Amino acid sequence: MIIICYSILSFREETACRFYAGHVYMKKSLGILIAVWAVIALIIIGIIIVGFSLYTLPGVTREGQTMSDIYIDETLPINDIDTIQLHMSAATVTVRHAESGDFRIVQSGRNIEDNHIIDVKKSGSTIEVTPKGSRRIQLFSFSLPNNSDNVIDVYIPAEYAKDVKIKLSAGDLDIIDAYTLDGFDVTVSAGDFNSTALIQSKESQIKLSAGNLELSQLECDDFDVSTSAGKLVIHALSGSGKASASAGEVRLESVEIADSLTVRSSAGSVKIGIAGDPGLDYRISASAGSIETYFADVSGFARGKNASGKVGDGPYKNIDISSSAGSIKIDRA
Question: Structure pTM?
Fold first, then answer.
């Protein structure tokens, strides 16, 4: 009996020791875990504090300035200018008529006072607007862009009729008023281009790498309009040339063909409205999609992949339309 009681006592003491040791271990583990999470929390708080000290909310600067603040307001005479060349790194750009007969450019935004993103000068018969430098803030080993709120308003006199060249690395471009030009070149690497007025030119080249292109009216002797990733929409198009989209819809709502029209789409549908009743010498190809036209003989190839021939009376306008992955529809405007 004594032996049994001793065994029971020994078992209880051993169990109590083990429980105590486990309790102590758990308390140590919990303490270590709490310490680790505390360090992580301090790091996160530090990152947030540093981030907010370097970066501000949209439209507000650390000095309390707003986007309405004007940092650059330059005016240059335009009477002897043959080319207006705008090269901007990252901004929202709007082009409109100037109230006076001079070229004017206004830049507003936030945090621009220490590092202007544009430089304006006259070089011979050219007005040049170029970026002064990249605007980036450093957050530890990371780099964050800080120029998304930069706004550039460009004022070009309505009577200016020479060349305009615009290159925008990142941002949206809007043209508000109508212009009649010799040459019109636009390149936007990442952003949309929208025009709500008539653009007339002898030659025009418009290229977007990643963004949507929408023009209200383009009249051009020779045009080349393209977008690599985005839709291409022209509400009224007149002249001869090429329109293409690598990954997106092509929609030309009303086209007056001067001599020829070439349309290409790698991945997207094509919709074209032909203005008037011209004679057409057509070549149409849809690798993976249907073909639909207003032509009288549409029943012969509506479900086919390729079509060619002539319709109407001469002189014939040449149209070459193809889509690698998408349908093609040609209708009357």
Answer: 0.75
